[in-house]
Design goal:
It is built from 3 helices and no strands. By secondary structure, the protein is an all-alpha fold. The longest helix is centred in the first third of the chain and has 33 residues. The protein is elongated and about 65 Å long. The mean pLDDT is 76.
C-alpha cells in the first residue's frame, strides 16, 4: 500500500503541475479569442492604442478633483 500511495501522490503532484502550466497558457489564448475584434482593429490601424492607460491618466486629475469635492 505504501508504494501505491506514494505513486498516487507523485502522479497527483505531476498532474497539478501540468494543469497549472496549461492554465497559464490557456489564459492568454482565451484573452486573444475574446478580444479578437479589438486586436484586429489595432493591427489594421497602428494609431489606435491597445491599452487605455494614456486616456485614463489624462482624465485622472478631473476625477480626483470631483471625488474630493463630494
Amino acid at each position: 500500500f505504501k508504494n501505491k500511495n506514494q505513486t498516487l501522490r507523485r502522479f497527483s503532484r505531476v498532474y497539478k503541475l501540468i494543469v497549472l502550466k496549461i492554465l497559464k497558457i490557456k489564459q492568454p489564448i482565451d484573452f486573444i479569442f475574446k478580444s479578437k475584434k479589438t486586436l484586429a482593429f489595432f493591427l489594421e490601424d497602428g494609431d489606435v492604442p491597445l491599452a487605455h492607460n494614456a486616456t485614463e491618466q489624462s482624465i485622472r486629475p478631473f476625477y480626483v478633483r470631483e471625488k474630493a469635492r463630494v
